[in-house]
Fold each of these.
Amino acid sequence: MNLGRVAQILGITESRLQGLQETIIRESAWPEPRLLRFEKEASGIEAGTVVFENGEIVFGYPKIRRPLMLAAAIKRHFSGPIAVEEKMNGHNVRVLSVNSEVVALTRGGFVCPYSTEVARRLVPEELFMRHPELVLCGEMVGPENPYVAKDIYPTDSIDFYLFDVAEKNCRGTFGVHRTHDLAEKFGLKATAFLGEFHRDVAFEKIKQIVIRLGRQGREGVVLKDPDNLVSPLKYTSSATNCSDLAVAFGYYNDYALDFFVSRAVREGFQSVEWAESEEERRKRAQQIGESILMPLVETIKRKQAGESIVQRVRIRVKSLQTARDFEYHLRRSGIRALFDPPMPDDDSYLIGITKLVMSTNDKTQALLDGEMW
C-alpha cells in the first residue's frame, strides 16, 4: 500500500496518516479483503472510511443533520429547489466491488457477511463490470434485517434500496437524479422520490408528506439539493419517534440517555411548529407516554416472571457459512447472540437469532431485588 498516495487522496500528510494509524485506524483482516478502518472521525475524514489493501479508498457516509424547526431550517439551509426522498428504516450499507468481488460495508466500515450475501444477490453483476469505480450507498430493509427488523416494506425477506452513489477515492456523491437514473438503468430499487419543491412552498408540502408517511408507519424524509450543492437534511414522523422510544424503553439500560431525550425533544418542537390544537397535543402526549410506559412495564413484568430480556430477529441465507460468519461478525461487534438451528426453506435457510440484552437484564433484576437507582 502506497501510504503517500493514500494520504494524498485523504487530504492529509503522510506523517498525519501514520499518527492516525496509532490511534483511531484499525486493521481488519477478516473477512477478506483486508482493510484499514477509521473508527472515529479525524482530520475531516469521516468515521467508517475504509482503505483497502489494494489502495482503493471508500469514504465514510456522512451523518445527515436534523432540523427541529423545519420551516426555519429550509429557509436557512437551501437556496434553490428541494428534492424530497423517503427516509427508510433499516441499516446503512455501502456496496462496491473490490478485486472483482462484491462486498457490503457497514456504516462503521466493517465488511458484513450477511449484508454482502444480500448485496451479491440483489445487485446486478453487470453494474460493477461496467462501473467498477462506483460505490452504491443504500439501505437494507425488511423483516429479515438482523439490525432493524421492519415489516412495513413490500418484502417478506430483505431488500436493498439505493439512495446515493459515490466513487472510490472521491468525496461527494452523484445527486438525486443521477442516482435514480442509475437505479432505473440497472434495475435496482431506489428510495422513493416524493417530489421536488421550491423552497418557498416546501415546508407545507413536506409536512403533509411526513404526516402521510407517519400514518403508514414509515420513518420520514430526506431533503436534498438536487445537485448536492449543500448537505442533505432529515426529518422524521412522530410515529417513528414513538416507535423508537417503544423499542428503547423495552431495553432501557442498553441505550444512551441522548437517544431518549432527543426523540422527546423532537416531539415538542414538531408539536409547536405544526401549531397543534390542545386536543392534538394531548393525543401526541398520550402516544409518547404509551411508547414509554407500556414496553417498560412489559420488560419489568417479564423479568419479574423469571424470563430473560432478549431481542428476536431472523435472517435468510443461501450459505450456512454466511450464517457462521455473521455470528462471528456480531460477536466482534460486541453483540451476544444465540443462533437457532437452520431451517431449510426452498433454496435457502431461515435462522432465528436471539440477541441477549445483558445490561437491561442485569439492571432490572438488581432493581427488583431492591438495589437503588
Amino acid sequence: MRITAKVLVSNIGLPTIKIGSWTTRLNLFLKKNPKIFDFILSPNSQGSKSIYCKKRKFFIWKKQLRKFQLLNWVAADYLNQLKKLSRKYSKLTVVVMDDPHLLEAIAIVKHKLKCEVQLIFSFHGFDLNIDSKTIAEVDKILFLSKTGLEKSKLNYQNFPKAMVVGNAVNSNLFYPLRASEFVNERKRMGYSETDEILIWMANDRPKKGFHIFKSVAENLLRNVENLKILIIGSNQTIDHINVRSVGRVKNTEVALYLQIGNYYIFTTLYEEGFGLSMIEALKCGSAVIASNRGAVPEVLHNLKQTYLIDEVEKTDSWIESFNLARTNSNFGKNRLTKDYTDNIWNYEDWEAKFKNAIN
C-alpha cells in the first residue's frame, strides 16, 4: 500500500476553456505543477491522472430523501472513486473546489473510507454558510480574502483551520499594451485613437447588476462624445451604435478585449468573494470603478486608478466616479504601466500560498 495521495475534486471538467476565475488559475497551476495532484476527479477523462466523475442534479426535492440522493446519485461518482482510492493509500488529501454539495457528501463518508482523509475546502465566495456538521469534518478552509474569513467565522461556534490564499491573475496574459501596440490593436478591432472605451464584463445573473450598468451607459452615451462601450460575457446589450456586445469568449481571448479599454465598471449587487474580472481589467491598464461590496474594498485597497461606489443602485454615483476617473487619467490617456500592474495579485504569489495550504 502506498502512503499518501492528493486528490482534486471539481464539478467542472479540468482543464477547461470555460470563463471563470478559479478555473483559469487552476488550469495554469495544473500545467505548471503536474505532480502536485495524484488524481483529478472531474467531468473530464483526458489525462493520465483524470478520473471521470459527474455531479448530478437532485431528481426530486424532499428533505427526507435529500441525504440518500446526495450519496447515491448527486455525488455518487466521486464517492465511489474515493472509496477505491482509500483501499490503495494510507492517507488521502482531498481538495474540493468550491462545491458545497460535494464537500458535504465527502464529509459524511469521510470516516467510512478505508484510510485517513484530510479534507480541504477551497471556498470562492464571501460569507461561508454551510451546515455545521459538514464544517466539523473539514480540516482546512481556503479563503480568497481576510474579510471573507472573518465574516464567515461569525457563523460558527467552532471553526476549522483556515488560510487566506487570495486570488491571482496571470501577468503574462493580462498586461497593459505599449503605447504603439495599444493604438494598433484598437485600430485592428475597429476603434480609433481618440475613442474612450468603457467595458463591462459578467454573466447574465441579475446580481451582476447589468440593469445598473445599462442606466449608467445610456446616460454617458448622451454626454461623452467619443465614448464606446464593450460588453463581454453577457447576451444582454444596449441599443446604440457605439455599443458592441461580444457575448461569451474563451479565457485566452478575454485579455485581448480588456487591453484596448480605458475604463472598467464592476456593478455587482452582492458580496463578492473577490471580483477577479476587475483585477484582470486593472492589470490590462484600465481604471476600475466598482461596488463597495464584500471583499472588493480589500482587493482594491491602495491600488491606483480604482474607485469604490457605496450607493450602488444610484446611477449618479457611478457617473460621478466615471467623470473623476476620466479627469484623473487625462480622459483615458494615462494608463497603468506593466511595471506597476505586474505586482498586482500576480499568479506566482497565489501559487506559493496554495501549495503551502494543500501541503
Amino acid sequence: MSHEDARVDPAVAKKLFAGEVKFVWGAQSVEGLPPQHLPEMAFAGRSNVGKSSLINALTGRKALARVSQTPGRTREINFFDLGGTLMLVDLPGYGYAKASKELAAEWQNMIFAYLRGRASLKRVMLLIDARRGVMDVDEAVMDLLDKSAVSYVIVLTKTDSLKDADLALVRAQVEAAAKKHTAAYPALFATSAHKAAGLEQLQCHMLALA
C-alpha cells in the first residue's frame, strides 16, 4: 500500500464498495460519453483478462458487469456510479485474436480519444493476467498510455492460478516492465476475483484518488 493509500481507512473503502452502485451509461463512441461529474477509474485489459469479474468482486456483486464467455464481445465503454463518489469505467477488451503488436484500430481510436479528452479520469487500472504476464499487446497499450500522459497502475488478475513462488516471479517481471514506462504508477496490485484476494488494497487505492 502506498503512502497515499494508507490515509484511507479500509473500513470506509469497504463500506463504499459494498454500498449502492449502478450502471448509468453505455457509450459506443466518444460522442456518446456521459457528462463528467465524478472522478473516474477506468479498467483496461486484454479480452478475457477478467475485467468484469474484478469489477463484480470489488463491488460485491455477481452480475453488475456482464462476464462474457466470448472474448472481445464487449464493445461499449460502460459507466458504473459508485455511491455518488466514484465512476467505475469498464473499457472494451483489446488484443483478441491479434497476433501482432498493433492494436485493433477500432479500439485504439475510441479509447485513445477517451483517455486524452477525459479530465475526470484519475487513473487507469491496467489488468494483466498473472498466468501470462506482460504480452506484446499490453506493451503497446502501455506505450499508448505514456503518450496520452494518463496515469495507470498495473493490476494482476487470476493470481489464485499460481503458486506463491511463480507469482513472485511474475510480479518481479511485471514490475520491471512497468519501470520502463513514464505513466506507470510505482505500485502493483495482485488480485483474485475468485478468492477475493487483494481487493481491499485496490479499493483503498481508488478511494484515495477520489
Amino acid sequence: MHFVKYQGTGNDFILIDNRKRLFDHLDVKSLCHPKFGIGADGLMLLQEIAGFDFEMVYYNSDGNISSMCGNGGRCIVDFAKSLGVFKNESTHFKAIDGPHDAIWDNHYVELKMIDVEKVENENNHFVLNTGSPHYVKFVTHIDGLDIIQEAHSIRYSDRFKDEGINVNFVEVIDQQTIKVRTYERGVENQTLSCGTGVTACALSFSVFSKLGNSKNEVHILTPGGNLKVKFTKEAKYTDIWLCGPATKVYEGNIELA
C-alpha cells in the first residue's frame, strides 16, 4: 500500500488515496504505532463522494473512527491538491461533521470550520464542540503544567469518561495571542497541535477576554508551530477559519499483513 506522511504543526497523519476503495479494512492501530508501524496521530482515507471534490475519512491512532480533525483537514486538502483532485485554489469536501470549504496557497491552507452556536462557560472553564468536543481551561505558566495528570482528571471525570473529551490548556500572551497545549482523546496523550482544539481555544478566548461582537483574529502558539483562527462573533460564531501550514514529510510503501 502506498501512503504519504503529513504533519500540520506537529500533528502527524498517514494519508492514503482510497478513490478505488482498495483499503477499507485497515489495521489502523498497527499502522499508527510509533514503534511497530509508520507512526502517526491518525490515519486518513481520501475517497470519492458525489457532490464534493472528495471525502475525508479520519481514524484516531487507537483505530476508531474519529470526529473532525482540523489539522488533518488542512493536510488532506494539500494531499488532494497534489493528486489533482481539485484544480484551482479552493475546494469543497465532506468530513464526518459535514461540508467544509478550504483555500490552498502554496501548502498554506485555510479551512472553514463548522459554525458554533454555544460556548458553555463554567467559572472560566469552557466546553464546546468545534467538530470535536473540547474542554478549555485558562492557566498561568503553561510550560510548567503537568498536562497529562491535569487532563486525566477532566477526561476521565464522571461527566466525560464515557464519550471522552479533548482537554486544552490556554495561557494568554496578549490581546491577540494565546499559547495552547492539548490532550487528545483517542490518542490519549498530548499532541503537538490540535486544529479543532485551537479553534475551541480561540472562541473561548473571545469570551474569557470579553471581546466584543465583531470579526476577530487570534494567533495561537502550540508546541508544534503557529496557527491562526479567524471568526465572526455575533449571536453565534460563524465564518470560522483555521489557518496554517500543511507539510508533506515523506511517502513510501508498506506491506500489509
